[in-house]
Amino acid sequence: MISATPVEYAVAVDRYLAEADLAAGSRRVYRISLTSWAWPLLGKLPPAGRDRRLASPPVVPLALLDRRDAGGKLATALAHRAAHAQVRTVNRELSALRSAIGWWQRQRWIGADPTALLPHLAGRPAALAPLTGTQRAALFQAPAGLREHALWHLLQDTAAPADALLDLNVGDVDVAGRRVRLSPGSSLEFGAETADLLGWLLAGRLAGPIFLTDRRAPAGPAAADICPLTGRGRMSYRRAAEIFTWWSRPLDPAGHGWTLHQLRPPSRMLLAGRTDEGVSPGARSAAGRRARR
pTM of the prediction? Predict the structure, then answer.
């Protein structure tokens, strides 16, 4: 018999994680994933990016998982997440929820499994539509920082993948000639406004990554990923994507925010499903960096 005692969702998450056989790092990832599923049960979307990891979840009765509309709400959230994250990330988060729900069922706290009809993603999510001219104009009026505007303009002008641009070093850019070198023998042009932004961004810097983190790099990153002048590290794709979504969310009628991939011109966007998301600094063409040095 299912217990009639109400159990708040966050408390249920705590009890599940206390019993789960997980390493400390995995337990932290599971907590973030499980916490993010609280908002959909109220018909809302969780915060994006860094806000998603730090936000306090709403108070949600665990019993909402037994409601007939729970599956539909989770499906909506899953589709939204699939448009903004890697397939493997989405599948991992869905698996975390399924594992927790199975444990909660065994405790007789809930009876239903609203994830039963939610399939794991078999491939990449459908590509999002490129931004319109009006949307781009509004974005470029946002009071974001110089680093962000330089990256956004460079992405729009060159149509290169965002992770490839984040992999660039100061020596790869010819501001005066308005060209950027992605690999030996391969370069792309950019416009005058982008040249101005890059010129200001790189003032006084002769080496190191073009796009830097806000703080000094911790111990561990390769020397090639650290600015010798400031000590700051190479900005990751994940952080760049979070910042872009945060600034674009107020401009998006749906309130979700846009992805960096949507900045690329329609004629240059790749086949459906490519989002350039989740590429870590270590996986981003280290060989290409060595070839350019």
Answer: 0.56
Quick one: tokens of 22?
A: 């997980």
DSSP assignments along 65-98, one per residue = GGSTTHHHHHHHHHHHHHTTS-HHHHHHHHHHHH
139-177 per-position pLDDT tens digit: 999 999 999 999 999 999 988 888 889 989 999 999 999
Q: Which amino acid is at 161?
A: P
Question: Which ranges of 140-220 would DSSP assign to H, the alpha helix?
Answer: 146-158, 162-166, 192-201
Hey, which residues does 234 pair with through a beta bridge? 212
CA pair distance 66, 112, nearest whole angstrom:
5
Amino acid, single-letter form, for residue 122: A
pLDDT tens, residue by residue, 90-129 = 888 888 999 999 889 988 899 999 998 888 777 655 567 8
Task: Give CATH for domain 133-292.
Answer: 1.10.443.10
Q: Where are the domains of the chain?
A: 9-106, 133-292
